[in-house]
Amino acid sequence: MEKLDNILVGILEGGISEEREISHLSAENVYCALRRQGIKSVRLDINTDDKERIKRILSENRIDVVFIALHGRFGEDGRIQTILEELKVPYTGSAPYASYLAMDKIASKRVFLKNKIPTPPFFVLDRKRLPQEFNISFPLVVKPYFSGSSIGVSIIREEEEFEEALEEAFRWGEKVIVERYIEGKELTVGILEDKPLGVVEIVYQKDFFDFYTKYENEEISFLAPAKLEEKIYKRVQEIAFLAHKALGCRDFSRIDIRLDRENNPFVLEVNSIPGLTSHSLLPLSAKCCGIEFDELIRRMIMLALSRGRYLYEKECI
Q1: Active site residue 149
Q2: pTM value?
Q3: Mean pLDDT of 241-266
Q4: In this structure, is residue 154 part of a structural domain?
Q5: Are residues 29 and 155 in the same domain?
């Protein structure tokens, strides 16, 4: 195992999105994992999207590699990744364009369709184009096109609920996705080193895994690994990996999937910077494969460092 004794890891946390507090929780877990392994790190609270200010923060701290623990806008949308590319600082996770695609649910859905990856039927609305009639049957999911942690998401089972759901979703952006709600199981699959990890089933009382359930509710359980027939389990892993690759993600991600009652998987979205809190699912998915949290974090950093060294050596040739 390569030593990281002389490496300083900069953990970017906080950010400017509505997921700021979740980012702090992820960063705390990462910081503790690095400290347990004797790896030096510094936590950097990013509370601006000013490019020059961020460049100054990173330069002043003489960071060797950046661990991105930012969630939501200016964390998962490719902008912080672009700044790090300009600085030639190695960083964890996907490149700018793949990050943007994963964050933009409309763009990612279109990529899934182009690559024949099953995803629930959907249509897109903006404030100027509201539906006169539905071409997808209830129940429906209404969600903002550019947010995470299930913020602004509603499940509606009848037309009378639609207006309120739209109002909530439009609070978070100018466009909204309306897609068919797939009755069945909620699954998630982590990817590490561009290979699928274990399938995790999320078991809860509500219709979906909302923000409160994700981070605050103790009345939730996880089956890790999910209790599925072997061929279905492998199919879910395969679909998750295809979604990861179709968006151009690298190193790691987490793919959310619904399994309908006929055991057909449907990809909901790809998370290019999955949460790393005590309630988060990527660590559970990794644990299914015998990878503990500290090792998961180490591997993420090693992937970033090895890529950074390759690019630097290539530039110098």
Answers
A1: yes
A2: 0.90
A3: 98
A4: yes
A5: no
Instruction: Name the maximum alpha-carbon separation found in the chain.
Output: 64
Task: Mark whether 77 is an active-site residue.
Answer: no
Does residue 24 form part of some domain?
A: yes
Residue 241 is part of which domain span?
101-118+183-287
Q: Tell whether the torsion through CA atoms of 97, 101, 104 and 107 is positive or negative.
A: positive
The beta strand positions in 170-234, using DSSP E, are: 175-180, 184-192, 195-203, 221-223
Q: Is 275 a catalytic residue?
A: yes
* Mean pLDDT over the full length of the chain: 90
Which amino acid belongs to residue 200?
Answer: V
Q: How many domains does the chain have?
A: 3
* Residues 196 and 139 occupy one common structural domain: no
Q: Which residue has the tokens 């009639």?
A: 133
Is residue 148 among the annotated active site residues?
A: no
Is 11 within 8 Å of 67 (Cβ atoms)?
A: yes
Domain assignment present for 79? yes
State how far the Cα of 291 lies from the Cα of 36, in Å rounded to an integer: 16
Do 189 and 111 belong together in one domain? yes
Q: Is 292 a catalytic residue?
A: no
- Which residue in 108, 149, 154, 253 is the catalytic one? 149
Question: 53 and 154 share a domain?
Answer: no
Q: In the structure, what pLDDT confidence band is assigned to residue 148 with cuts at 50, 70 and 90?
A: low
Query: Based on the domain organization, do 111 and 207 belong to the same domain?
Result: yes
Instruction: Quickly count: other Cβ atoms within 10 Å of residue 146's Cβ.
Output: 21
Residues with Cβ within 8 Å of 32's Cβ and at least 6 positions away in sequence, in order, are none
SS3 164: helix
Q: Is 18 a catalytic residue?
A: no
Active site residue 309: no
Q: Which of 53-67, 189-203, 228-242 has the lowest mean pLDDT?
A: 53-67
Summarize pLDDT for 82-114 with one digit per residue, the tens.
Answer: 999 999 999 999 999 999 999 999 999 999 999
pLDDT of amino acid 133: 64
Using the 8-state DSSP alphabet, how is residue 278 labeled? T
In a domain? residue 61 = yes
- Checking if the pLDDT of 139 tops 90, the result is yes
**Which member of 23, 41, 94, 271 is catalytic?**
271
